[in-house]
From TrEMBL, chain A:
This is Copper-binding protein MbnP-like domain-containing protein. It comes from the Bacteria. The chain crosses the membrane at residues 12-32. Keywords: Membrane, Transmembrane, Transmembrane helix. The lineage of its organism: Bacteria, Pseudomonadati, Pseudomonadota, Gammaproteobacteria, Cellvibrionales. Residues 34-221 form the Copper-binding protein MbnP-like domain.
From TrEMBL, chain B:
PROSITE patterns: CYTC (PS51007), PROKAR_LIPOPROTEIN (PS51257). PANTHER family: BLL6722 PROTEIN, CYTOCHROME C PEROXIDASE-RELATED. Binds 2 heme groups per subunit. Its main location: periplasm. Its cofactor is heme. Binds 2 heme groups. Heme c 1 binds at residues 76, 79-80. This is Cytochrome c peroxidase. Its EC number is 1.11.1.5. The keyword Cell cycle does not apply.
Length: 253, 382
């Protein structure tokens, strides 16, 4: 045995193996992600959302519409695994699609290993909604703030609607604490993606108008303070964000 | 309601041994009493231009010194007068060339908050970048920067002041000093601020005006509103700071007459006719109004928003849609506010006047030439 270990050739092989293992470990360490990235891909039904330029069919009625501004709050993000739930501090993220770069939320975390569900709210929880504290993307002087007596807009969509030559503005500002909705997205990842720290989600603007209740923009071109209208659109935006499906996969290629 | 944010920023002189030390300021005294209401929210001072006593003092001297102009007769304060909340009372300003400029002089107040794009069309992305533009503009101050640096370098006092503040005299340090002074121009003791702090109550008319200011109208929900807050934030009262959200087309011109506005900077057709939404702090003393100074009074401004909106493709849908009546004549854009409601909003706007700001000695002319301007404003007010 001693002779075996002390033979020059074997020692050289062992040293080589050790160096190779160290290099592999080093490589794995340097490539191991240290951030989790959630990318949101906006669509209107089957078509990608393009602000200002593109025209879409009214999902539940006659006419066409365009979107000038679309923003919403995604809040209280939690990564749920069987043995633990990781929460994000001051997790109030303004999601918007008016930048050339994709809309991505980046978090310091080593991996999503074991995480089976992503949980988050659409809107602002009642405690934060009645506070003047600036945290995350919440800003009492921001575009998403109503007056402090009312709170934040949770979802903002502004644009234009046209039917038979008649144009109308679209103004949907939906808020109120009772309309905070929690969404749970299962992360059903194939085994070969188990180490990936990327999550791709699909945001479907069409869902605002047809997910649960039909909101016909030909009849209701504005929602703000009417509680019943706001609740109907809130029921709809509980389905605004879903896992990426074929639409998204096509877009990613 | 108010808390105090105190910044104690300081300048750290960094020397990199290999390359030797750049000239560093001789002294760097943190600005200890710099404070602002917490409801104004977060703010950022550039890391390479931390606020110090020396920088602010230098910036104040430069701001009021006509040495910055080609003919040594025009200073920043010529068009930005303290008694007018750092506006100038003219439709559009006039500089060294005597030609009227394209824009109305913008009030300088609470510049750390609101849109961090400067000029009416947002072409400067920082106060530092903004400062050198009017100095060199042939119709504003018409100055050559190399000549200006030479003039300041041979001046009896500026070399030591620059040495203390920045180390040396350069166009960048001139801009940085001017930016530092302007960042200290904080207005936070108007009657509205006192109301927010719980120190006073507003009159019934002012309170009605405040409520109207803070609401988008929704006739279906019986919510009356003046629609102001859709563009002017509730505490800062300026445009929004996020991206280009602080720019708007507020219906001043029909399609054919739309000026480029923000589109001159972004090149995007959807930005035609969009201009920076200014702070409304001290609005009662900053007439005339709008980017071209077309309205002489606040009553004219309210009349415009109530029933004078001109349609165009980039007009804000929030303005088109805002109506205090359930139905209106087809195509007409009107807030349908009553006369007394318009008066109430004007009464609320007057609560934004901050006399302490308008007379604060720390912001005044260090060369003691302010009296003339103050007298003129008093005369105008009468």
């Amino acid at each position: 045995m001693n002779n075996f270990l002390t033979s020059k050739r074997v020692r050289r092989v062992l040293w080589g193996a050790l160096v190779a293992m160290l290099m592999m470990a080093l490589g794995a360490w340097s490539f191991w992600p240290n951030t989790v990235v959630i990318t949101l891909h906006p669509f209107v039904g089957t078509q990608p959302l393009t602000l200002n330029e593109k025209v879409y069919q009214n999902p539940v009625g006659v006419g066409e519409f365009s979107v000038r501004d679309f923003q919403f709050f995604m809040s209280n993000i939690r990564f749920v695994s069987n043995d633990a739930t990781q929460t994000v501090m001051d997790s109030y993220h303004l999601v918007r699609f008016d930048d050339a770069a994709p809309m991505a939320l980046v978090f310091d975390a080593s991996s999503l290993l074991g995480v089976h569900t992503l949980e988050f709210g659409i809107g602002v929880d009642s405690a934060a909604n009645s506070s003047l504290k600036s945290r995350g993307d919440l800003d009492p002087n921001g575009r998403m703030a109503w007056s402090w007596e009312v709170g934040y807009k949770f979802v903002l969509l502004e644009g234009g609607f046209e039917h038979q030559g008649q144009a109308h503005p679209l103004v949907y500002h939906v808020g109120f604490s009772e309309n905070y909705k929690t969404i749970r997205v299962p992360l059903n990842r194939p085994w070969y993606q188990m180490f990936s720290a990327k999550v791709d989600l699909l945001v479907d603007v069409k869902a605002l108008f047809d997910a649960v209740h039909g909101v016909n923009m030909a009849d209701v071109n504005t929602i703000k303070f009417d509680r019943q209208d706001a609740r109907r659109m809130a029921d709809n935006y509980a389905h605004l964000v879903i896992p990426c499906d074929n639409r998204c996969v096509q877009g990613l290629k | 309601m108010f808390r105090t944010l105190v910044t104690t920023t300081s300048v750290a002189g960094i020397c990199i041994g290999l390359f030797g030390c750049k000239q560093e300021p001789l002294t760097a005294t943190p600005l200890k009493d710099f404070e602002a209401p917490f409801v104004f929210g977060h703010f950022q001072v550039p890391a390479d231009n931390a606020l110090t006593v020396e920088r602010v003092a230098l910036g104040r001297l430069l701001f009021y010194d006509p040495i910055l102009s080609k003919n040594n007769q025009v200073s920043c304060a010529s068009c930005h007068q303290q008694a007018r909340a750092f506006a100038d009372g003219k439709h559009t300003s006039v500089g060294v060339s005597g030609k009227p400029l394209a824009f109305n002089s913008m009030s300088l107040v609470n510049l750390l908050w609101g849109p961090q794009h400067f000029f009416w069309d947002g072409r400067a992305k920082s106060l530092e970048a903004q400062a050198l533009v009017p100095i060199q503009h042939p119709d504003e101050m018409g100055q050559d920067l190399d000549i200006l640096v030479k003039e300041l370098s041979t001046h009896a006092e500026y070399p030591s002041l620059f040495a203390a503040a920045y180390g040396d005299i350069s166009p960048q340090h001139i801009a940085a000093a001017l930016a530092s002074f302007q960042r200290t121009l904080i207005s936070a003791n108007s009657r509205y601020d006192q109301y927010l702090r719980g120190e006073i109550t507003l009159t019934d008319q002012e309170e009605l005006g405040r409520k109207l200011f803070m609401a988008h109208p929704d006739a279906k929900a019986s919510q009356r509103g003046g629609n102001c807050i859709d563009c002017h934030s509730q505490f800062v009262t300026a445009g929004f700071s996020t991206r280009l959200d602080g720019f708007s087309n507020n219906g001043l011109d029909v399609e054919a007459d739309l000026k480029p506005g923000l589109a001159a900077v972004t090149g995007k057709p959807e930005h035609r006719g969009l201009f920076k939404v200014p702070s409304l702090r001290n609005i009662a003393v900053t007439a005339p109004y709008m980017h071209d100074g077309r309205f002489a009074t606040l009553a004219q401004v309210l009349a415009h928003y109530n029933s004078g909106i001109e349609p165009s493709t980039t007009l804000s849908p929030l303005i088109v849609e805002a109506n205090n009546q359930v139905s209106d004549t087809a195509g007409a854009i009107s807030l349908n506010l009553s006369e007394s409601e318009q008066q109430a909003i004007i009464a609320f706007l007057h609560t934004l006047t901050d006399t302490d700001f308008l007379t604060n000695p720390a912001f005044s002319d260090p060369f003691n030439r302010a009296q003339d301007a103050t007298a003129q404003v008093s005369k105008d007010a009468r």
